[in-house]
Amino acid sequence: MTRLRLLSRTSWLWLDGAAVLIAAAFLACGGPVPIPGSIALVGGGGGNGTKTDLGLNTKSNTNVSIGTDTGIAVSTADGGNCGITTAPLNKQPPDVLLVLDKTGSLLDAMDSTSTCATGSTTCQQRWTTLVSGLNAVLTSPSTNVNWGLETFNSDGSCGVDPPEVPITPGAAGANAVNAYIATIKPNGSTPTTLAITTAVTYLQTLTDPNPKYILLATDGEPNCLGGKSGGGGGGATDLIGAEGAATAALNAGYKVYVLGVGPETTNLTGLAQAGGTNDYYPALTPDALTAALASIMGSVVSCSFGLGKAPPVPTNVAVQFNNDSTLRAPHDTSHANGWDYTTPASTTIQLYGTWCDDVTSGKYQSAQILMGCPGGAFIQQ
Predict the structure, then answer these.
(1) Among 264, 257, 275, 262, which residue's Cα sits nearest to residue 222?
(2) Between 304 and which of 92, 167, 197, 362 could a Cys-Cys bridge form, CB atoms 3.0 to 4.6 Å apart?
(3) Contact at 8 Å (CB) between 245 and 228?
């Protein structure tokens, strides 16, 4: 499956403000009253519409808009009997629940199964390396993420409690996660199955429109058979159960990104694939861990946009670029190359593949979300 692409902080300067990716264009029947300062349009067979022009700023070092949208030609095939109005299209920050392994093996070395001696200056411990890498991401001012934290285990054995840090917007969430991690002393077993299941149960309680992801950081194979709470450790393998939990997470709408720390993680490929992310991210060295986290963040902080309101007909929508009806992203529920809704209410969309690449690289100077009205002609994609 194609991964979403990295948006650096500078790449998003053109998204600062209320509405810079021009707006969602509603094809609302009857021709609304013109918006002050907008351009009057005439639909192919019906009433007058209006459209507010906003340009995309694609320069990474300036907020000056380059290129403007000079009007949408509304054809009969696009429901030309309906007027066009606009609403802001805003980038949506993702909700990321960090599901953090804190089992006893994390006290081992990054490159072996030997425990680092107390006070060693040559042994690179998995836990200290993981904490350092997470700290760098959590304190980065360019990471626009709503963070939460769930650790496993929670009882020194095979139990998992609900998230210690609920999903919290902005820097407050990142700071809370960082502060809690600083108090952790690794011990116990690895109930990965229960950890993923608990994460899904929690995410399903959230009502915000943001896309939601699970970031699973672990150093090895699940060893709590059946994902039971309490007992069941002692080396019993439950990789199949963990993969089943990851599949259930994906089916619920939550991709599972897997960060593998240390040398005993090659069995995590199946877990990542079950969670919809193709492969796990290996971290055998501190530098590799930092790079893996950066890549994962680039996959979730990406082309997600709020529509302001649900389309009148969610199945009659087109995402168009540069006022060109030949540049319309397909509705792609496989999330390979196109767009799809990220919320059941159809209030947020996500771009995938080359369409996301071309928006973030500045290839497109404007974008419109065309929404057909009830009973109107189908918008061609």
Answers:
(1) 264
(2) 92
(3) no
The residue whose two tokens read 């609302």 is: 28
Q: Convert 49-86 to b/e letters by CB count within 10 Å (16 or more is b).
A: bbbbebbbbbeeeeeebeeebeebebeeebbbbbbbbb
- Six-digit token pair at 172? 């407050």
* 99-124: average pLDDT: 85
| pLDDT digit string, tens, across residues 121-155 | 778 889 999 999 999 889 887 668 999 999 999 99
Instruction: Give tens-digit pLDDT for 35-93.
Output: 222 222 222 333 333 232 323 333 333 222 222 333 333 344 444 444 443 344 566 78
Asked if 347 and 306 touch (Cβ cutoff 8 Å), the reply is: yes
The pLDDT-based confidence of 376 (bands split at 50, 70, 90) is low
Encoding tokens for residue 270? 């199946």
Q: What are 28's two structure tokens?
A: 């609302």
Place domain 95-300 in its CATH homologous superfamily.
Answer: von Willebrand factor, type A domain (3.40.50.410)
Hey, how many other C-beta atoms are within 10 angstroms of the C-beta on 88?
Answer: 18
Residue type, 73: A
Q: How many CB atoms lie within 10 A of CB 237?
A: 13
pTM of the model: 0.69
Q: Quick one: how many helices (H) and strands (E) in the chain? A: 7, 17
Q: Which residues pair with 215 in a beta bridge?
A: 98, 257
**Boundaries of every domain in the chain:** 10-91+303-371, 95-300
Nearest to 239 by CA among 257, 218, 254: 218
d(CA 74, CA 43) in angstroms, rounded, equals 5
What is the rounded distance in angstroms from the CA atom of residue 101 to the CA atom of residue 95? 19
* Paired sense of beta strands 367-371 and 24-29, if any: parallel
What DSSP character marks residue 1?
Answer: -
- Mean pLDDT score across all residues of the chain: 74
